[in-house]
Specification:
Radius of gyration: 20 Å
Order of helices and strands: EEEEEEEEEEHHHH
Keywords: Membrane, Transmembrane, Transmembrane helix
Strand order of the largest sheet: 1-5-4-3-2-10
Structural class: alpha+beta
Protein name: DUF2207 domain-containing protein
Number of helices: 4
Number of strands: 10
Shape: elongated
Number of domains: 2
Largest sheet: 6 strands, antiparallel
Organism: Cellulomonas wangsupingiae
Strand content: 25-35%
């Protein structure tokens, strides 16, 4: 993980809230099945509310067999049997939620079937051709957004008087209408969200001019 992880606080033992249909755009829930040091099978669950808590801070909540075990602001790293669960978010969802073992091997946690990530994973398993086409469309939209968005950003920057005095104003090759720009922003948000459902993140693509990423 590239950013320093937050301090982990102990949990209070409350039960994991069931996932509801209205959580699709605001909540991620992933699971990991591990054996504890005593040899008992346990289910480790990570719950992330993307809108943040009452203080507006997004946190990862760790549960063991459905009971609250620990909490930390994002990005977070929780110690679990045989390694660490690492959690990080982008502007559109999660960019990383993996179990990193002591031997260096890494595996992604499994999304809860009820979540948007779970739906996207089923689409990939059951309809791989459709899944690949959707993934390709998302990348294409983000590339177009970069090509059309970068010149507009540069043009706006060079229109600032102090900047214009130093390097002069610059007119970009593309001049989109307000309607076209709004459509491009909406398409970019949809594309970045689709990639977040697959835990795909690129600073070049998903942190681009129209996406508002990190």
């Amino acid at each position: 993980m590239t950013r320093r992880t937050a301090t982990v606080q102990p949990g209070d033992g409350h039960a994991l809230t069931p996932y509801r249909p209205w959580h699709l755009l605001t909540r991620s829930l992933f699971h990991l099945h591990l054996t504890d040091p005593a040899g008992a099978p346990r289910t480790w669950s990570v719950d992330v509310r993307h809108g943040g808590d009452d203080d507006g801070e997004a946190r990862a909540e760790l549960y063991v067999d459905g009971l609250h075990h620990a909490t930390a602001k994002l990005p977070a790293a929780f110690g679990v049997p045989d390694g660490t669960i690492e959690v990080a978010a982008s502007g559109y969802g999660l960019r990383r939620i993996h179990h990193v073992r002591h031997d260096g091997s890494v595996r992604q946690l499994v999304p809860d079937p009820a979540t948007a990530e779970g739906w996207r994973a089923r689409l990939d398993r059951n309809h791989p051709a459709v899944s690949r086409a959707l993934a390709l469309a998302s990348v294409s939209v983000l590339l177009v957004a970069l090509v059309l968005g970068a010149p507009q950003i540069v043009e706006q920057l060079t229109a600032i008087p102090p900047v214009a005095q130093v390097i002069g104003p610059w007119t970009g090759p593309f001049r989109l209408s307000e309607t076209a720009n709004i459509a491009l922003v909406v398409a970019t948000i949809a594309a970045s969200t689709e990639r977040a459902l697959r835990l795909r993140y690129s600073r070049f693509l998903d942190g681009g001019f129209f996406s508002g990423g990190e």
